[in-house]
Design a protein that fits this description.
Length: 408
């Protein structure tokens, strides 16, 4: 009997490890698919018509942003369906949908076709939120923080390496072939998920999940806390993306217009992602031991410590170090937020909660660059970092308030 239990435990351990490994690759490729167009999107759009500079800027911004806007609205619908029909089914739907859409992007003949496909890419999303939900519900509680921490590194690494990956593909092949190759890799993700990811059937949960979101929401004991976590995610993403519109310009200012500005700006932009990939799994394990609420509060402090001095830097090296520290704060907060969401919501609506969190993250991805550009136009580039520190402080105050009123 003891031997059978031991074998069963080993099997369970291998299953959740395999789920994490496969879904890490899936969210990694999802991150790449979302960000790979950054180096050549404007150039690709320029081949689809005769546009002046202002038109090209407008279309590039609209085509890039529409994916995140649609994700913000559609993600909760997929989350609700995932709770009813299963998270793995939604993973397969998202992977196959992204495969088809990426292939089609390589065949467009005008900018509006590309715009529509980017909107569909947002509509067919949900791979990341459902990966988080599946890992949160299928992983033993004592390993949940570590598993979610590992998963965070996949999306972060994908977003980090996506522009590099896309730039290499566009250089070696061409813009259209870049989409086809990415689509082929996402098809591989579909088959890996189909054959290797396991989700335990939970008939009772499935029956409960047929309830409406409003009915299930009434059963959540800490509604204010959950909404506070959504806002935390949105603010963190706003802060992460606020520098995106001006990072190259700020680097050019610091280097006195050196010839290698583009390369240096790429390294500066990559530093937070590198830090998150390196430390998030370890911080997830630490959070399991010392408490996830405490990890988020530590993350707030680290972020403020990094952002305020950044407004006064005169050295590229110091800028890189401080951006690396920002990545450490992300690694402290993001897995902890995911862990708290899974811990404080009924299993029957885990996917819905994670999808709403993804919606708030998508909103942050849209608002961050817009507000960053606005602040930079009024207060110069350095004002963005003071603005980011203020947002983090507000975030910390709200989180502390919500934690104090948390029902045990």
């Amino acid at each position: 009997m003891s031997e059978n239990n031991h074998t069963s435990q080993e099997s369970s351990d291998s299953l959740w490890h395999r789920n994490v490994f496969v879904l890490w690759f899936g969210v990694f490729m999802t991150g790449i698919a979302l960000s790979e167009v950054m180096p050549f999107l404007s150039l690709y759009i320029d081949t689809l018509g005769n546009f002046n500079k202002n038109q090209l800027t407008f279309y590039s911004g609209a085509v890039f942003a529409i994916t995140f806007l649609v994700t913000a609205f559609v993600s909760p619908l997929w989350g609700k369906l995932a709770d009813r029909k299963g998270r793995k089914l939604m993973l397969l739907r998202a992977a196959l949908g992204m495969t088809i859409i990426l292939f089609l992007m390589g065949f467009v003949t005008n900018v509006w076709q590309l715009f529509a496909l980017r909107a569909l890419q947002g509509a067919m999303g949900g791979f990341v939120s459902n990966s988080n939900a599946l890992i949160a519900t299928q992983t033993p509680k004592q390993h949940a923080g570590r598993a979610l921490g590992i998963l965070v590194t996949g999306m972060t690494a994908g977003n980090l390496l996506g522009p590099l990956f896309g730039g290499i593909l566009a250089t070696v092949f061409d813009y259209r072939m870049s989409f086809h190759i990415t689509g082929a890799i996402l098809l591989l993700v579909f088959f890996l998920t189909l054959f290797l990811v396991k989700e335990d059937p939970q008939p009772k949960i499935s029956h409960i999940a047929e309830s409406s979101t409003r009915e299930l929401w009434q059963q959540v004991p800490n509604k204010q806390f959950i909404i506070g976590l959504f806002i935390t995610t949105m603010f963190v993403q706003m802060v992460n993306t606020s520098i995106n519109p001006v990072v190259s310009l700020f680097v050019r200012e610091l280097t006195n217009n050196a010839g290698n500005t583009t390369f240096i700006a790429g390294v500066v932009a990559a530093m937070p992602g590198i830090a998150t990939v390196l430390v998030a799994p370890s911080f997830g394990r630490i959070g399991d031991r010392v408490g996830t609420e405490r990890m988020i509060k530590i993350g707030f402090m680290i972020a403020v410590i990094a952002f305020i001095p950044t407004a006064f830097v005169t050295s590229i090296t110091i800028l890189m170090v401080l951006r690396f520290i920002v990545g450490i704060s992300d690694a402290t907060m993001m897995p902890a937020v995911q862990t708290l969401l899974s811990r404080h919501t009924p299993t029957a609506m885990t996917s819905r909660i994670f999808s709403y969190n993804q919606s708030f993250q998508a909103i942050g991805s849209v608002l961050g660059p817009m507000l960053g550009a606005l602040v930079a136009s009024i207060y110069d580039y350095r004002g963005i970092f003071i603005f980011s520190a203020i947002i983090i402080i507000i975030n910390a105050i709200l989180f502390n308030f919500n934690t104090r009123n948390l029902k045990s």
